[in-house]
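Researcher: Let's do a round of design. I'm pasting the structure tokens now; please hold your answer until I've finished.
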């Protein structure tokens, strides 16, 4: 007769990785506003800290330079234009996705280009 030990059960449970939460597209303005309002968007590795305000303003810093800009919501996309120090960052509409209400991803060119993941603080 085989004996079952509780410790064996626990070791099996901890050996199975938890399913990673996936990014979910944000397509409606109220959903986007709920995610960002009163929160800072950060990428610590690059010293990026941004505030995206409900009134359409963007401000913050990136690698020691001031970031300013404006955004709007158009056809389910976050569209923005910014200045990073004296460098102009041209208008672009981006796909927005969120994971666990903790990380927000912006993908340029309406989701077909590069993306950046920001921690929501």
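Researcher: That's everything. Go ahead.
Model: Designed sequence:
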């Amino acid at each position: 007769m085989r004996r079952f030990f509780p410790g064996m059960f626990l070791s099996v449970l901890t050996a199975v990785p938890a399913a990673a939460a996936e990014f979910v597209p944000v397509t409606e303005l109220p959903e986007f506003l709920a995610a960002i309002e009163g929160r800072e968007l950060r990428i610590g590795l690059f010293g990026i800290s941004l505030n995206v305000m409900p009134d359409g303003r963007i401000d913050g810093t990136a690698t020691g330079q001031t970031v300013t800009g404006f955004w709007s919501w158009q056809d389910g996309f976050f569209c923005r234009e910014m200045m990073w120090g004296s460098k102009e960052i041209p208008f672009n509409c981006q796909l927005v996705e969120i994971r666990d209400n903790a990380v927000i991803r912006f993908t340029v060119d309406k989701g077909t280009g590069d993306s950046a993941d920001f921690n929501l603080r």
